[in-house]
Amino acid sequence: RRFLSVVQLNPFPAELVKTLLNEPSSVKVDEVVRYEAGYVVCAVIAGLYLLVVPIAGLCFCCCRCRRRCGGRVKTEHKALACERGTLMAFLLLTTLVLLTGVVCAFVTNQHMHEQVDPSVEAVPEILLSLRGLVSDVPQELQAVAQQFSLPQKRVLEDLDGVGMSIGSTIHTRLRSTVYEVLASVSNLGQALQVSVDHLQALNSTLVELRKGQQDLEPAVREHRERLLALLQEPGCQGCTEAQSRAGALELGADFQKVSPVDDVLHRLRGVPEANFSSMVQEENSTFNALPILAALQTASVVKELKKVVAQRPEGLTTLAEEFPGWEAASRWSRALEEVEERSRPYLKEVQRYEKYRWILGCVLCSAVLLVVVCNLLGLNLGIWGLSAREDPSHSEAKGEAGARFLLIGAGFSFLFAAPLILLVFATFLVGGNVQTLVCQSWESKELYKFADTPGNLPPSMNLSQLLGLKKNISILLAYQQCREGAALWSVLQLNDSYDLEEHLNISQYTAKLQQELQNLKVDMKNLDLLSPAAHRDLEALQSSGIEKIHYSSFLVQIQKPVVNTNMEKLAQELEELARTQGSSVLGQQLQEEAQGLRNLYQERVLPQQSLVVSLEAQEQGSESSLSPFAQVETSGVLDKVTYLKGELPTWATSILRNESECFLTREVGYFSQYVAWVREEVTQRIATCQPLSAALDNGRVVLCDMMADPWNAFWFCLAWCTFFLIPSIIFAVKTSKYFHPIWKRLRLGPYR
């Protein structure tokens, strides 16, 4: 990379790439040459190498044929050992450098070969991930729109019980009032029944008392008159005290003075006409069945409401279709799929040509390795030959063999120099430009900045126009946001191109729901509270005048005795007087009067007293069955029933409206939660573009790290070996002279 930074000193050629993308025909060659100046210099060097080294090799072959190159040392001198050692050291060092280079070349060539298959296989995966990103956006939007069925299902479930719920609420709110009125009606009906029964019994007893009084009064009067006549006779002895008691023998209680109840009973004739107990029980049952009644009455409206809820708002229906890039997404998806299909044959070709490149690289690396082996063998044999040269019986075969190996290595160097330099320059030109033009600018984000500059890219490559956006977006900023996991909504700034709130506006949908809810009605006409017969009974009670009965007049007469004088005591006194009288006739008469009083008492007074006792009990029962304010209570109950019958429908309607509004608020809340969820999903979660940044990063890794880096390492190592072949040739040829027998020694050898 440092070498490439020296070769390519120019910055990223923004203007040249802009012209190449927009107007390829107007690209000037001199601009390209100016940018590629470093590569041109390298090309000149490679050309010179390609020209000079083969020519030098050809000349060397010619010289060798004439025995002018690679000959022997003519004479032995003092500096011979030093020269030979120096050349051998330099040759060994050069060979070691070549060995290191060829080992690195082998390794990088193999690494490059191993990276091709994963890189080629990664290309369809990257395209597939991009296609998945493009195709998943519409699918995710459609999935979000289809989730509208969840609040729909919840609302439909609530609608199944809305009638019963509203009826239960109306029943709960009104039951205290209705139960109170029905309890008042029931109590008043029971009191009415008891009062009528008591009044009838009271009136019957009063009639009997009056009749008994009429029968008793003459009899008492006759007995009083007869007793007074007997007791006032001159012959009556000790009759003065009895005479005063007999004078008091008269009726005490006068039931003719008691207030009559006939008029009240006349007005209450046929009352009670209604059975208040069963009526109240029936009204209670009707009122308690209000939830079921409400469910039945609202069934048709609930059915229409379900039809409204089952519909889908138009904005949600077109949420995905009108999303920016919807059409472009399908085009891109098809285009990526087509690119993926078309790239497979080319990728297979890449693998095939890579195999050829790998074989060629192995062959050329083997050639360099062959040169290294020849040099090492030549040095070893040459040194062995030199060490044995002092032995008279030793031949010069080892030195000669070493020299030949060195010359063979030089020959191989001349032979493979041309293909080596050609392979080096071809791979260097491709890999170097990929590294300096693409990888460096990609890693430094210059490519993104270039794409963000207006006018650099042709309209056909403008991302904003391809996506149908109204505002240009920064590719660099979009890439950075995508790496952080941002959604396409914020990355593409879709709020300027797509009115999400318009698609999430469900006001028309909820307005239809509200309009249908206003049709909910609960009719309470079956709840009468008071039947017509019961109403007539209470009106009769109200106008009967029962509160005007003077029960005090009853008490006054009841407290009086039926007869003022104690008739039994008077009869006993008369019997005693009868025994003390001197006249038997008078005594007999007094005895008869005493017996008559006893008979009157037993036959007339005692039954009358029993009726008085019954009258007292009936008066108390009648007075306690209805309060003195019965008329006021009856009027209050009638007024309350009339008021409630008029107000109950209004109250029920008011409660129905409140419950409908609460129901609407709750159901709209479900849809509002869904809308908020959709808004969050679309703007923050759906279509995260992290796969896009990952695809770009993976593409850079595949191209630069997995392909370009081993590619450049391979040509660099191979170039290293190629250029070190020159000193290897020079040192090998120079050193080979010292491994041959010295001419002077060969001529003088036999004489010694």
UniProtKB/TrEMBL annotation:
Residue ranges crossing the lipid bilayer per the database entry: 37-65, 86-108, 358-384, 405-430, 713-733
The keyword Membrane is annotated on this UniProt entry: yes
Keywords: Glycoprotein, Membrane, Transmembrane, Transmembrane helix
Keyword Cell division: no
One of the record's GO molecular function terms: cholesterol binding
Any matching Pfam family: Prominin
GO cellular component terms, A-Z: apical plasma membrane; cell surface; cilium; microvillus membrane; prominosome
Coiled-coil zones: none
Compartments where located: Cell projection, Microvillus membrane
Main location: membrane
UniProt topology in membrane: Multi-pass membrane protein
Similarity-based family: Belongs to the prominin family.
Name this protein carries in UniProt: Prominin 2
